[in-house]
What we know:
With about 325 residues, the chain is of the alpha/beta class. It has a single domain, classed as Alpha/Beta hydrolase fold, catalytic domain (Rossmann fold), CATH 3.40.50.1820. The protein has eleven helices and eight strands. It has helices spanning about 5-10, 70-75, 95-115, 130-140, 145-150, 190-195, 195-200, 210-220, 245-260, 285-305, 305-314; strands spanning about 20-25, 35-45, 50-55, 80-85, 120-130, 165-170, 235-240, 265-270. The protein has an eight-stranded mixed beta sheet with strand order 1-2-4-3-5-6-7-8, sandwiched between helices. Strand 7, helix 9 (about 245-260) and strand 8 form a beta-alpha-beta unit. The longest helix has 18 residues, at about 95-115. It starts with 5 loop residues before the first helix and ends with a helix.
Amino acid sequence: MATMGRGETRRFNTDPIDTVDYHLDIDYIGDGLRAHRLDVIVPKPTGEQLPVYVYFHGGGWTSGDKSTLTKYCASQAREGMVVVNVNYRMATEFRMRHILQDANAAIDWVAGNISAFGGDSDRVVLGGDSAGGQIVALLAASRHNPELAQHYELGASAAPWTLRGLVQHCSIADISVLFEPRFILSLNFIRMLLPASMLKPTDPVRQRAREKERSLRAAARFLSPIEWLRPEFPPVFISTSERDYFFRANVNFIRALRRMNILADTLIFSRRSTRATHTWQQDPRRPESQEVYRRLQEFVRRVTAPALAAARSQ
């Protein structure tokens, strides 16, 4: 899986957007770590409270940085939303518990502070690409699954906020695909995200390979958003491509959402779209990205519209 370095950061952010205000590197926890910084990007002028789009970068849980997504986020902000671009701690030093706790802390910061930037904490949409999509989908699921929230030690929100929708770009929303033969990610990605206590075999000498896999599958349930869907899950916008590594995971997620009558708005590119590869949405120069942006913005306007917001809160 490709990772994004300084070259991609510069390339993806060429011709910066100047019709928005940038508030960069805000420490949302207060410990001075780069991993605990976020950016707030605001259209100018505002004059009214706007929906809030909170975004988490991908990178296989081990790499990436919010700086690569600056222009992506600015592209959404100029269309009438306050966008928050978030960093978080990553593997292999940290586990999924730490990642989700960082995501939860970032949302708490948004709930308590976003009004100062013209954002409405009652109209929040979460988004992410690849591993970032998995993170926000799991966080969304934890809001209606006490078992999942307790597993990751996610405390109650410090301030009220309302999740209106979820955006998934080439997301890893179904971890079961990692168990497919010769998948691009090895099962070590699952092992590095889970605490050692969940992976300790009952009899490491005699345990058969099939039993080990069964044990790992059971543990991986806590990483897989598709396993935690409930009717209360928010509407979802999913963009993917047949050239995406995680195309099957996205298709599985779409089917699961629709079986539960959860709105799944989709934009799927065929294999003929050669530029629509994994997380192509990060690159604003591609026409396929601009099509995603148009659909994303329509989705955010629809799910955060005051009438729909009021109906969902009743």
